[in-house]
Amino acid sequence: MTRRSLRSFGIGEGGGSIVTGNQLVVPDGSFRVWGSRGEMHLSSSRPSDVKIMSLSGSVVRDFRLDGDRVEPLPSGIYLVVCEHITYKVIL
Q: Are residues 52 and 78 in contact, defined by beta-carbon separation less than 8 angstroms?
């Protein structure tokens, strides 16, 4: 599972900014995700929007998570986005 993400910084106005550097975004521990036996386990200590996507980019699930949830999914590699951080989960 990958728990790192880069956030770009830029200068300029509007959409024409110039990227000047990157900052490592570290998860605060309020969200956890892991795979086990064909199920994806998700846990959040606060309400969070979650997207589960396939490697092709299609959205498999999109929901608001508050607490624990188990999603049965076919074997594969999934990207889970929560709070602007992307996690890779292998089932």
A: yes
**Residues 6+ positions from 71 with CB-CB distance below 8 Å:** 39, 40, 42, 52, 61
Q: Specify the pTM.
A: 0.71
Cα separation, 62 vs 91, in Å, equals 18
- pLDDT digits over 6-50, tens only? 454 545 555 555 555 566 666 677 899 999 999 999 999 999 999
How far out from the chain centre does Cα 51 lie? 7
If you count them, how many residues does the chain have? 91
Q: DSSP characters for the chain?
A: ----EEEEEEESSTT--EEEEEEEE---SSEEEEEETTEEEEEEEEEEEEEEEETTS-EEEEEEEEEEEEEE--SSEEEEEETTEEEEEE-
